[in-house]
Amino acid sequence: MRIQAAVLRGEASPFTIEELELADPGAHQVRVRIVGAGHCHTDVLPRAGAGFGPPPIVLGHEGAGVVEAVGEAVQTVAVGDHVVLSFDSCGHCVNCRAAHPAYCDTFLERNLVGQGVGGAAPLTDSAGAPVAGRWFGQSSFASHAVVDARNAVVVDKELPLELLGPLGCGVQTGAGAVLEVLRIRPGEHIVITGTGAVGLSAVMAAKVAGAGRIIAVDLNPERLALARELGATDTITAGQGDLTAQIREIVPAGPQYGLDTTGLPTVIAAALESLAARGTLGTVGVQQGDLAIGPLTLTVGRTITGILEGDADPRTFIPTLIELWRSGRFPFDRLVETFPLSEINTAEQRALAGEIIKPVLLPGS
């Protein structure tokens, strides 16, 4: 079928809205009419020329929409269902079977290349040339997407579907890091470096968990003010002193946990050094350089661990986040600002400039 999509044709090029041909869903796939798709910082990776999703490509991996067609073998999703789309996974490797799909054996090929695995390109342009259309298994900066049924999470039709897409990646990553990986207990302390969508989701999750001191670190004063509104007990403006010492002024023995969302080696090292003995630091995203750790930093039992997608199983974790939102305990919608899909370049520029936190693109608006 003919669809509209935002196509990235060069690393330094703007997105262009084009008509593409979308293949029919396969036996285990569904076609979804996209209602809203969040823009995540990971969607900028194809611009870096590092081999992630080389153009031409349709990006977008925080989609939500309505199922319009299902493959003959699909049993978990029906036409008319409202769904949130998340990352792709095989479903049968050791980690997938153990409910850790973010560590699927084929995660990189399925999510960060744009071509998927073992199938023909689902998208072609007006000249018949292929356009990568399996970014995180969905490529949802489009009016429609074809995805594997296992990556579509059915949600209540009464929910504001256009707002739910970010639950599939950025929000899930921050909240999952706190609730599924670090597993903070009531009264324990955490420092969170970086207060974008992932960091602020971690702040909200730490409040849900009953954390004691929730310390948010960022350069942006408006982000820090919002972090306080969402649950941070303390904030630190980055770059204005010794970060390790500033954290220790708030929690003299050091927080038990930390989460870095910046990818900056100096920030990661400072946060790790600030932790209590046997403390754990989680890191998300792509690290921006080599990490130098002091010779005694780990001798007191500290741990540093990378985290993908919050190590969450979207099929169970996304419904959990929705219930927390419904109860007023996880107001992720405060991070969202919507744009027509036709304004994707403006949305991207404003997000990269730090003017907005989570742009959500609305096809057809």
UniProtKB/TrEMBL annotation:
CDD domains: benzyl_alcohol_DH. Keywords: Metal-binding, NAD, Oxidoreductase, Zinc. Its cofactor is Zn(2+). The keyword Zinc applies. It holds the Pfam family ADH_zinc_N. It comes from the Bacteria. Residues 10-361 form the Enoyl reductase (ER) domain. InterPro entries: ADH-like_C, ADH-like_N, ADH_Zn_CS, ER, GroES-like_sf, NAD(P)-bd_dom_sf. One of its GO terms (cellular component) is cytosol. GO terms for molecular function: aryl-alcohol dehydrogenase (NAD+) activity; S-(hydroxymethyl)glutathione dehydrogenase [NAD(P)+] activity; zinc ion binding. Its EC number is 1.1.1.90. GO terms for biological process: formaldehyde catabolic process. Belongs to the zinc-containing alcohol dehydrogenase family. This is Zn-dependent alcohol dehydrogenase, class III. It comes from Mycolicibacterium chitae (Mycobacterium chitae).
